[in-house]
Amino acid sequence: MKLLVGWVFACAIMFNAMPKFIFLGPSAWNLDVEAGAALIADAWRVLPPVERGGVARLLADDAAAGMIVIVDGRFHEVLAVGHAEIRQALQLGWTVWGLSSMGAIRAFEMRTVGMRGFGSVFRAFCSGVDFRDDEVALLHGPLPPFPPASEPLVHFRAAIEELLLSGYLVETTASSILHAMERMWYGDRTLDWFVSTLERIPSCGPTVAATVIAEFARFRVKTRDLSEFLLERPWLTV
After folding, report:
1. What value does the mean pLDDT take over residues 181-203?
2. C-alpha dihedral sign at 167, 211, 231, 8
3. Domain with residues 2-133, CATH architecture
């Protein structure tokens, strides 16, 4: 799977009649084979996580309006991608989508001015509940394929919800774990912390904790949103 992600970053650089650019980072870390193949087949130009000025440079470099998809972005050590440059792209006739991570945040913030959102993370921001920006934040490596060093809170929410439904956690314990993670710096939200916490809970213990970690890829909703976007191709039907 890691080799697939590296191959995607190396190969998905072709163009077709409508230029399509996608800012990708750790959300593609566990991208499935079918979605990776679709990324290449649809001739996406893969760019690293976007930062301030990234969209503006793209507009300056490419005269033909096409499609921009923001998935991942940088914000800690640099300024995050600006609303003004996204608005400029929209005004110049570009189609701009956002999903999964930084893209979902900007799509929610700019949904009334033409930016389009996709996926469960975007819908969570639109739901009206207290869903904070740092739900999608994580630490990751600086170079492709941008391996994650922590996990975003939204992934742990999905895992905890399943543990609740399965009866391994009760509501009070689940809430206590979530509140502890909400108070953490996003870089401290790691699988090691999560598994050690589950191991200390009698209804879970080492066996359940090991199973959760072994199957954790299915809780990575940011990657699932990306996969569904590439496979469903919603830009063809709106």
Report:
1. 96
2. positive
3. 3-Layer(aba) Sandwich (3.40)
